Structures are given as structure tokens and as C-alpha cells.
Amino acid sequence: MEPEENIKPHAIMIPAPLQGHIVPFTHLAINLASKGLTITFVNTQSTHQRLMKAQSVSGSSLDYDIFTEARKSGLDIRYTTICDGFPLNFDRARNHNQFMEGLLHVFSAHVDDLVGNLVDSNHNPPVSCLIADSFYVWPSEIAKKYNLVNISFWTEPALAFTSYYHMDLLRSNGHFGSQDNREDMIHYIPGVQAIEPRDLPSYIQDPEPWSIMHRYIFKSLEDAKKADMIICNTVQELESSTISALQEKKPFYAIGPIFPNGFTKSVAPTNLWVESDCIEWLNTKPKGSVMYISFGSLANISRQDVLEIAHGLLLSSVSFIWVVRPDITWSKETDLLPSGFEDDVKDRGLVVPWCSQIDVISHPAIRGFLTHCGWNSVLESIWCKVPMLCFPIFTDQFTNRKLVVSEWKVGFDLCSGRILRRQEIAQKINCFTSEANELRINLEETRKQLEDALSENGSSGRNYKQLVCDLKSKILQKSKINNTSLL
């Protein structure tokens, strides 16, 4: 039996095939490899094809290795792809429910084949760990079958995780699972002082939580409870009581914020869209004068919402960059903006289909971020000390908004409800730009907490070390069952 300190963990990492999950997974793979782990990173073939297309790699070759650059610094990261059960030309966005049914019922068989082959291939070091996205329904079964340490990676804040973790508590208290859900304040979730129902993840708020998405997400969270360890892209100091309560239930490691080294573009491609270069345009704008507007890579809004935002921008006086993805609405219409909009704002506005968000929000011309409150966007905004104007759309974004607006006070709500009105948008944007300096005072403090956490002796630095130590111990325990070599 090998001494624990000589164990070299070899982890298979499998992110959910979504932009907001691929980004932190890729950065985490590089971070863990820099701490001595061997990583085999697995993307779906569809995800890989989109990454290659966005990078303009000829033929979207399936044998292209996205970690070639990372390995030049000595990191042991291997790369492979897996079929998700659908042909490459299948439109996953337009056939969303069918795709989710496939992930629920079919995808696990492909994962089983892949993991089985990797375990049986005499890799050096041998595969000993599975780090899977918490939004998968199969990790506990696969990890158990191949005697792997099962680590669930939660890419959202701890507050969202504990909301799902305590769904039975919410149900028994009448705040979840019926058309007559209570609307009063919730005070009984361990580690959460108080939360309004409107701040729970949208799938818990829904009065009829029975769609394929509800079934899938609830099953995946039940599976995550079975993990040996849970790692989370958050910071101990920002969610201390919530994390402490979760740690009484399960080994839970806050190791965020998970960024590329130096907060620059990743050495591995993570974008699923071709990026427009906005920097030349931003360079012409005064410091702190531009509003960045983006609703992330997945969320959809109605065409009416797009029109209201556009008219709100016309009524306001702000300069802006607005990311309008081709698939931002469910509509197949291509002309989403009002007629003549881009001409009307040509001196102060830039509309792009996608961009490098890190490059944009770290630019000195940016004054604020009108955001859907995706978790990556929230952490990146805090790091760049950019105040947020919040318009959550679905999933954890309502929970993230609570943290941004109520807990950390680094942002404002865009509107009082969920209905956008152009006059209110213009008023909020103009008010926000004039009051952003107050938010920046809180941002300075919150950013320092992120920075301190990432230092070697900071909370996330210590939690990384503890994670690797505990992982080696767990691998040693499992190896005793099979009496296998670990080097």
C-alpha cells in the first residue's frame, strides 16, 4: 500500500454541456492540475464542435486537444470527448425537452462506457476520482461501479445549493410543491437567516414543478447528496453561515472564485460563440462611461423584453455595449431590435452577438453591468469592481440577485417585478449611473474578500489544500478494498 503523501490522484472531469458550466470546469481543471492532480477532461462532442467552430479550427476536428497550451507549462491534463446520445447536427436548443430526456435516460450509458474504458486502460496514474457536474443524474452510480471517489462540483453559490438540499423542508412548510405555495419569509433553512420565496431558484418557485427540467434538476440534486465531497465556486467569507451549515451535512469545500490565472483569457478555449472585438470601440470612450449589457449564454427573454430594453436605452443617455445573442429569444425572427435602432445609437451604443466578457468588464471605460445575475458574471463583476443592475431570468439567478442586492449591496434591481417597461428601464439606468459610486465602496470590500480568499493562506487556498489531502485519504480508503496500486 502506498503512503498517502505519494498518491497521485487521477480525476475524470465532466462538465454539463453549458457555457456557464464549461468555463469554471475548465479553470478548475487547470487549478487542480497545478496542485499535482492528473486530469482527464471530458466534453460532449457537440460542445467540442462548438468550441472549435468558435475558435475557427478547420473542420471542427474531434481530435483537436483544447489543453495543448496548458500542458506546455507541465500540467498533466488529458482530453477526450463523448457522445451525448444525439447526432452532431441535432438542434439541442430548439429541441430542448427531447435533449433533456436524453440526458436523463440515455447519456449515462455513454458515460459508463467511457469511464469503464479509462479505468481499464492502465493509465498512469490509474483513474481514482470522478468530478462531475452537480447537474448530472448519474455520478453516484458510475462512481460506485468503478470504485471512484465521487466529487460533485456545484457551479453556483452555496445559497442556491442549500435551497435545493432542503426542498423537503420547503415542501413540508408549504413553500414548495403546490399551486398555493406560501409567500411569507422563510426562516427555517439551516444557515440561512431569512429568504423570500422570490429569491429561491426559479425551479423551486414554480407552482407546477413537474416539467422535464424540474424532474431532471431535482433528480440531479438528489444524486449530488450522495457524493463523497462537494466543491463549490464560492468564497467562505461571503456565505459563511450557509457553508458552515452545509458542512455539518457533507464535506463541502468553498474554493472560489474559480478564475483563469491572472484573470486573463483562459489558455484553453471555453467560448461557444465567436467573439466580437469590443476593445477598440471601448478605447474611444471616457473612463467609467459605458454600461455593459448581457444576459449570459443560455437565458431567453421575450422579443417584447428586447424591444423594451432597446427603447429604454434610447430614452436614457448612457453609452453601452449590448450582447444580443442570435438565440436570445425563442422566436426565429432575426430582426429583434427596433427599426433603425443601431443607427440611432451609433455614437454611443455597440450591439454584438457575443464578446469576451472578461476583456470588456475589466476595461476602465465600463461603469456598470446590466446582468441576468449568472453566477460567473456576478463573481467576475465583483473582481472587476463593476456594480450590477440586476434582471434575473431563471434558475439560480434570483438567488444570486439576493446576494448581490440585499446581502453584499453591490447592485440594484432593474425593475420592481418581472415585467420590463421602457420608462422604468431608462430611469433605473440613469439613476444607476449616477449612484454607482456608492456601490463601488461595497465592491472594494467584497473584491478584497475574493482576493484574500485566493491567497495561499486564504480560505479558498486552504480549502484547496484540504480538498487534495482529503481526496488522497479517500482514495487510500477505496484502494484498500481493491488492493490496487496508486502511483
TrEMBL record:
Gene3D superfamilies recorded: Glycogen Phosphorylase B
Keyword Protease: no
Keyword annotations: Coiled coil, Glycosyltransferase, Transferase
Pfam family, one: UDPGT
SUPFAM superfamilies: UDP-Glycosyltransferase/glycogen phosphorylase
Principal EC category: transferase
Keyword rRNA-binding listed: no
Enzyme Commission code(s) on record: 2.4.1.-
Family: Belongs to the UDP-glycosyltransferase family.
Protein name: Glycosyltransferase
